[in-house]
Amino acid sequence: MMKKLVALILAVVMIMAMGSVAFAADENVYTGTSKTTHGTDTITLNKTIVIFNPDDNTSVREPDITFSYVVSPYGSGSDGDKLTSTVTDGSTTVTVYKGVTGGVTAPADIQYSHDNAVPATKKGYQDQKNTSIGVTPTAFPHAGVYRYQIVESSNPADVTTVGLENHTANYSNTRYMDVYIKNGTSGLELQGAVIFKTTAKDTSSPANNATDAITTTTEKTTGFEPGKNDTSSTEKEDYKSDDTVDRYFTYNLKVGKTTKGNLADLNHDFPFEIVLTGNLSHAVTADYTASGATYDGTAPTTFSVSSTAYTLKPKMSNGDYIEVKGLPTGTSVTVKETQDTTDTYVASWDTTEGTTTSSVTITSSNDPTTNLSLPKDGTVSSSPVAVDGGSSYVKTVLGYTNNMTEISETGVVMRVAPYVLILAAGMTLLLISRRRKAEEE
């Protein structure tokens, strides 16, 4: 009796499988939700920007950029024509059809904005947003698997203008999507969809089962995201070398002040001029904070970095510092400190606050200037720079030290010297006078 019951159950399962499009569940496979007969359903499309900073969990502002998407039928022939591609699930194989116009609707744009701050890290914070592709089942002629192409474009078109890394050949702005339309109880319904990266090596819709030809160039995806996308893991992936995704490298700048010497004025505020210039045509917002430093005018909390220079003018005494966080790749920094007292200070700057690598004497007419750049890979064209933790990220810390040379506390030289000169002059005159008198006699 039990054997007959098992056989009956297997038979029912096989009949049900033959009556619908083959479709297996998977983590990157969209499954229809509402199943509304003759209605519209949606498919989620994700977009990720990976944001880096040498100090883990530094609050960094997103770049201002908009991504838009065009979805169109993919394949040769007319809309709805059979393609040479097939989808296989176990022993079931079905034909893939070219998508039909009107079967899907274009998704809304995805917007990143400097108004939003995220906790950037050394390995890269996944800043993910999403949009939806609408599906109208009644637009399709019959049940089946229909293929579409999704193309990403950005505004501005060149992502580097907002500080994102320039796209390499490994970055693809194209995805493909197979939409599964099934026969419902009262008409056509959306069963689900698979989004994948390329059709170059596998003409079937990828990963319907473990035997499908899944390669590194043919992967299921949820959209435009990193090659490794494990957001649930506590040991996050390192995305520094993943150039298949949009990456945004940011850096921080700290300028600190030290005044020392036995007669130095530790409370004197020395004027600084810090000029930041980016290689971006589009301004990027960075955050400014200060400890103890005063400011000419109103101290900013944020400011914009672009090809137009931005100047900070703090005044700092011993122990004060300023910090700028979230500077984009390619930002150049020029720092000047002015000696505005009549005292004699010997000034030096260094990159680790304590180790002098270069020194200059500050005068009011010849301000010292240090030039440095903040590249992605840590290779710099000029010093000073400091590499953080041996990684490839530049962590820039500039320390400015003013040291007043020690002088004698007796003051003997200054008190006696004038009288010594007067006495010497008198003796000289007396000798000259006696010599002339002797010559006259």
Describe what you observe in this structure.
The chain has 441 residues and is mainly beta. It folds into 2 domains: 24-244, Immunoglobulin-like (Sandwich); 249-404, Collagen-binding surface protein Cna, B-type domain (Immunoglobulin-like, Sandwich). It contains 2 helices and 28 strands. A hairpin with a 2-residue loop joins β5 and β6. Residues 5-25, 201-217 and 353-394 have low confidence and may be disordered.
Q: What is the CATH architecture term of the largest domain? A: Sandwich
Count the beta strands.
28
For this structure, the CATH topology of the largest domain is: Immunoglobulin-like
Shape: rod-shaped
Q: The biggest beta sheet, please? A: 11 strands, mixed
Mean pLDDT: 73
Number of domains: 2
The stretches of 5 or more residues where confidence is low (pLDDT under 50) are 5-25, 201-217, 353-394
Tell me roughly what share of residues is in helical segments: 10-25%
Radius of gyration: 36 Å
Give the oligomeric state.
single chain
End-to-end distance, in Å? 160 Å
